[in-house]
């Protein structure tokens, strides 16, 4: 019996120590995980309700603002582009819907400058712009530019989310949560050839095995202070290191940087080029500023992971002054980036075609090249 008592005491003490060690490993009292899960579910429901209500207000506000401008959006997009276009211009502050002209025979005709297609893409853009403002002001991170829209009857919009809402379940609300960048692998996809239908059916030849896309080390810094709220931010490791260097230089000037667009998959580039991304509804704007994924030399610039669209934090592209753009240019070039001359917000590094050309010119002339077409 004494031996049995001693053995029982040893077992109980060991069991108590094991339970103590497990409790210290978990760091949560019993039921805390379930409570966190329930709270996360509530957050998700609240976010969905907020999105629904924001969409209703956004549509009302978009219709009101477009009505003031005669159905045209004269706003500037995030990248500083003019969204709505009106080829007839304005009379005073009013957009012109049609002009009276004479044909070859001298007859007066109405030359229309307004059509339903114009109304639809202007409404989509204005709606998306206002909705993004609501979503960006939400306490938790809701993705922006995350919806595909369908306009029905000019005044009804149906939106479908491209990606899910993401919430951290096991999060201690008493501790400030700082998201850290994480290393991931990304497959770099080359350009896709234009699809052409054959004139006639030919016997199928055996296909050569496809070379798998190049896999590259990336940093996902979505949700960090360097990434605009609601935006997905990925960069190749070398480019991310240069971005951190630029941020250090900005801090010395008491400024902060914010990336609005970084790596784009081939699918995303095609969506933007073909008009499925509501940020660029006007085909003229897309052709001017967006790289054609079918004609890129190898990989489109954003597809390399070595390109950023960037601004000063706390500013929008439309409120960035010439002094702000100059400060941004100096910061980025000092860190080793090269700016695309056509776009004040677009910088490249680390082996892109433009970056390599800038390096070659600098080597020949002995003068650093900080911007190139």
Describe the structure.
This protein is α+β, with helices and mostly antiparallel strands and 373 residues long. The protein has two domains: 32-161, no CATH class; 182-192 and 214-372, Muramoyl-pentapeptide Carboxypeptidase, domain 2 (2-Layer Sandwich), CATH 3.30.1380.10. Helices cover 38% and strands 17% of the residues. It contains eight helices and 14 strands. It has helices at 2-26, 32-68, 116-136, 237-252, 266-273, 283-289, 322-335, 353-365, and strands at 90-91, 94-95, 98-102, 108-112, 147-152, 156-161, 182-188, 214-220, 234-236, 257-261, 307-312, 338-340, 346-348, 371-372. The chain has a five-stranded mixed beta sheet with strand order 10-11-13-12-14, with helices on both faces. β3 (98-102) and β4 (108-112) form a beta hairpin. 28% of the residues are buried. The model is unreliable at 76-83 and 195-199 (pLDDT under 50).
